[in-house]
């Protein structure tokens, strides 16, 4: 919690003969993050990259075949539901017995499908070439085989008159018109010129015999027949997918594991007789893995724990309570935390839904989004998508809770007045009670901003002490304290001069000097001390001073974006119900019924649109407040992702 | 400015109208402002993300920075109206 998982850096050295055992053991535990060995050019330590274990190339080529079949059948292991887990030994046996037959069948089907597709294309092409000739009532043989005559066939812009002796057929029944001209060879050139002047475009006579219309029909029928055959083959492939998907994904998984294991030595350093590998193991797994390795190799292994020198090199794995873990996704979008800094996931997991609820506080929209996130969980199978949906479901629950507090459902009021500040706008004269309490809400938002930013700065102080050391750490801490002092100094001065509802009223304090009361003087002192604190680290930072105001005011979006969504909902209700439906209900006529249906459509469309806008507004603005206003105060990020060597079997079991 | 023929109600109504106009201008103009600002950043951010998906978070962050402008506009508008 609040810190990434603690890691230990290991050096494992063992004789080469133990490579297979050790790789197998590490893979099984699925916790060891291998630090890839990079040989330094020109170094004389005699280390070189290891060679893959035996069987690597066989497994790899089998894997390629299986992946090819999977893609031919449209199987995506990511999206396959786990129905049964097949024992690994059974899969291995089936790879020997069943797989060749499946591969042959699928390859045969795919080959005949591509052959048929080529044929179909050929027929379609022929049919297309024949189309213009259908307009001419003449057999195709008659276009060819003359020694004393030339035949022109082609498209032309308009009919032409030809001076030379000729025979001609013109049709405007086809696209671009069709003309056929037969002339004696001696007039060929002048006729060609005449035709070209009229925009003649020659088309070759198809190499076929018989009436064009019959041929066209024949080709079209053939193409249709082949299409049917292709559909049949697709059906067969779908059948294979249905029958063998479980087995194929299990093969994929098993062989992937084999290949990964066999290729692991490529990431190790080797000498003549030994290999060594450096890597990371979470602290809680350390002893267990160490023991297992020693036992598996019969003590023919040397494991040493190394000092962690550079925290940027440590792989980072989150360690959060279950409810907060989906939020890690949102942190990863920004950047994974560095090993030694604070992991803000837990804070985001709590505050993000609250912000979302404050913005989209509406029972109706919250319920729609909750249903949507729960429903989509069945369809979306990717890891990231599911995590995002979980975050959304928490946010929509918060939205429902705030909806009850604000007393809002689809922009109308619930049967009770708002329990906290009301957001009911006076649209269409519908507002009851005391109208929207915009100013109060705005001040609450400012308070949230002040506290959130203060929290961020305090975390910044904690981080600075962890990341830096010595003089640099002191400077960074003072600078964060300076920002805090400046912000609260400004606030004290504002409170000393203006009485603001829901905020401390310090206007009545005794005046000390120059018309300034105690609070104002304290404020000025804090402000000046703060500015000095910021400047001692880096004077250039002073240009950022206005961001104190803009970041705090930025939290006003919690109210502003929310109010705009309320306004849209109320306007939709007013237009659909108040202006379209209600006047018709007074005296129902046939036309009125249609208008009422239109009104209902407007209502549904409007609320669907507003749900989408609310999701975008609520989600993006809440996360933006974290990314821009909160994280910039303390969060660096840029940690390396912890990627353990191994795999959690989904479709197979040992 | 006040015409002799105007009643108090008319003056109040016209004041309300001026406020509404001001609120509309505040939101509209700041909206245009942040739109113009986000245009360039957004285009560059999409390009950068296409090159390297890891920068998506940073790109989103940079894209929404000018959004503060329109939020200020909205705040001013709401304070004007209520």
Overview of the molecule:
The complex is a heterodimer of chains A (654) and B (82). By secondary structure, chain A is an alpha+beta fold. Chain A folds into 4 domains: 7-50 and 268-314, Alpha-Beta Plaits (2-Layer Sandwich), CATH 3.30.70; 129-217, no CATH class; 322-436 and 556-633, no CATH class; 441-554, no CATH class. Helices cover 56% and strands 10% of the residues of chain A. Chain A is built from 17 helices and 18 strands. In chain A, strands 1, 2, 3, 9, 10 and 11 form a 6-stranded antiparallel beta sheet that branches. The radius of gyration of chain A is 38 Å and the shape is extended. By secondary structure, chain B is mostly helical. Chain B has a domain at 40-82. Helices cover 83% and strands 0% of the residues of chain B. Chain B has helices at 8-51, 56-64, 67-81. Chain B is rod-shaped, with a radius of gyration of 20 Å. The model of chain B has no long low-confidence stretch (mean pLDDT 85).
Relevant terms:
heterodimer; A: 654 residues; Alpha-Beta Plaits; 4 domains; four-stranded antiparallel sheet; 17 helices; 18 strands; 56% helix; B: 82 residues; mainly alpha; 3 helices; transmembrane helix (chain B)
Structural class of chain A: alpha+beta
Proportion of β residues of chain B?
under 5%
Radius of gyration of chain B, in Å, reads: 20 Å
Largest interface, chains and sizes: A-B, 22 and 17 residues
In helices, the fraction of residues of chain A equals: 55-70%
Low-confidence stretches of chain A: none
The quaternary structure here is heterodimer
Shape of chain B: rod-shaped
Biggest sheet of chain B, open or closed, and with what strands and sense?
none
- Whole-number radius of gyration of chain A? 38 Å
The computed structural class of chain B is mainly alpha
Characterize the main sheet of chain A.
6 strands, antiparallel
N→C terminal distance of chain A: 33 Å
**Order of helix and strand elements from N to C terminus of chain B:** HHH
Mean pLDDT of chain A: 88
- Quote the beta fraction of chain A: 5-15%
The averaged pLDDT of chain B comes out at 85
Record field, number of beta strands of chain B: 0
According to DSSP, the number of beta strands of chain A is 18
- Distance between the amino and carboxyl termini of chain B: 25 Å
Overall geometry of chain A comes to extended
EC number (chain B): 3.6.3.14
GO molecular function, one term (chain B): hydrolase activity
Subcellular location (chain B): Membrane
Family (chain B): Belongs to the ATPase C chain family.
């Amino acid at each position: 919690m609040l810190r990434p998982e603690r890691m230990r850096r290991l050096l494992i050295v063992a004789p080469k003969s133990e490579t297979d055992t050790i790789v197998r053991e590490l893979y099984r535990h699925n916790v060891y993050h291998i630090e890839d060995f990079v040989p330094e050019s020109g170094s004389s330590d005699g280390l070189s990259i290891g060679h893959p274990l035996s069987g690597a190339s066989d497994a790899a080529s089998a894997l390629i075949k299986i992946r090819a079949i999977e893609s031919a059948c449209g199987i995506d292991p990511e999206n396959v539901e786990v129905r049964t887990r097949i024992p690994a030994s059974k899969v291995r046996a089936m790879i020997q017995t069943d797989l060749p037959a499946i591969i042959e069948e699928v390859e045969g089907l795919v080959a005949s499908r591509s052959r048929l597709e080529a044929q179909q294309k050929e027929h379609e092409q022929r049919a297309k070439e024949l189309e213009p000739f259908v307009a001419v009532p003449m057999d195709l043989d008659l276009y060819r085989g003359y020694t004393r005559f030339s035949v022109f066939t082609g498209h032309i812009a308009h009919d032409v008159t030809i001076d030379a002796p000729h025979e001609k057929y013109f049709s405007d029944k086809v696209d671009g018109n069709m003309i056929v001209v037969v002339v004696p060879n001696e007039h060929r050139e002048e006729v060609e010129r005449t035709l070209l002047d009229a925009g003649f475009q020659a088309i070759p006579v198809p190499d076929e015999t018989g009436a064009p219309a019959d041929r066209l029909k024949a080709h079209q029928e053939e193409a249709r027949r082949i299409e049917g055959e292709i559909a049949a083959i697709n059906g067969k492939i779908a059948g294979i997918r249905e029958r063998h998907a479980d087995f194929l994904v299990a093969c994929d998984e098993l062989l992937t594991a084999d290949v990964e294991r066999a290729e692991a030595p490529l990431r190790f350093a080797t000498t003549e007789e030994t290999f060594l590998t450096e890597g990371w193991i979470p602290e809680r797994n350390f002893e267990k893995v160490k023991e297992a390795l020693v036992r598996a190799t019969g003590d023919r292994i040397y494991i040493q724990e190394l000092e962690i020198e550079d925290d940027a090199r440590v792989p980072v794995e989150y360690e959060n309570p279950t409810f907060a873990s989906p939020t890690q996704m949102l942190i990863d979008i920004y950047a994974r935390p560095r090993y030694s800094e604070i992991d803000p996931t837990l804070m985001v997991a709590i505050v993000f839904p609250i912000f979302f609820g404050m913005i989209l506080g509406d029972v109706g929209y919250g319920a729609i989004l909750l249903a949507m996130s729960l429903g989509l969980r069945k369809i979306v199978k990717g890891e990231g998508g599911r995590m995002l949906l979980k975050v959304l479901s928490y946010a929509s629950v918060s939205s429902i809770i705030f909806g009850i507090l604000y007393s809002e459902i689809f922009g109308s009021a619930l049967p009770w007045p708002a329990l906290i500040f009301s957001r009911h706008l006076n649209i269409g004269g519908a507002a009851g009670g005391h109208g929207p309490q915009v100013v109060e809400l705005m001040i609450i938002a400012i308070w949230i901003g002040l506290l959130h930013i203060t929290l961020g700065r305090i975390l910044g102080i904690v981080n600075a002490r962890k990341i830096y050391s010595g003089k640099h750490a002191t400077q960074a801490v003072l600078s964060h304290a300076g920002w805090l002092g400046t912000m609260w100094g400004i606030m004290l001065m504002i409170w000393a001069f203006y009485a603001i509802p829901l905020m401390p009223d310090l206007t009545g304090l005794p005046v000390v000097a120059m018309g300034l009361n105690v609070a104002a003087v304290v404020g000025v002192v804090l402000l000046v001390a703060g500015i000095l604190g910021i400047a001692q680290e880096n004077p250039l930072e002073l240009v950022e001073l206005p961001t104190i105001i803009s970041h705090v005011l930025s939290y006003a979006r919690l109210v502003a974006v929310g109010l705009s969504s309320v306004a849209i909902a109320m306007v939709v209700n007013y237009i659909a119900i108040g202006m379209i439906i209600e006047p018709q209900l007074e005296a129902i006529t046939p036309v009125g019924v249609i208008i009422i249906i239109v009104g209902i459509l407007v209502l549904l469309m409007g609320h669907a649109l507003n749900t989408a806008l609310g999701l975008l507004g609520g989600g993006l603005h809440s996360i933006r407040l974290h990314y821009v206003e909160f994280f910039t105060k303390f969060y660096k990020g840029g940690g390396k992702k912890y990627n353990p060597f191994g795999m959690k079997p989904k479709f197979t079991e040992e | 400015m006040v015409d002799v023929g105007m009643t108090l109600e008319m003056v109040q109504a016209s004041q309300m109208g001026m406020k509404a106009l001001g609120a509309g201008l505040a939101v509209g103009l700041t909206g245009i402002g942040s739109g113009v600002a986000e245009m360039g950043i957004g285009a560059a951010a999409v390009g950068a993300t296409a090159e390297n998906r890891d920068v998506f978070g940073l790109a989103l962050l940079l894209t929404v920075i000018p959004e503060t402008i329109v939020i200020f506009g909205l705040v001013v508008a709401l304070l004007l109206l209520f």
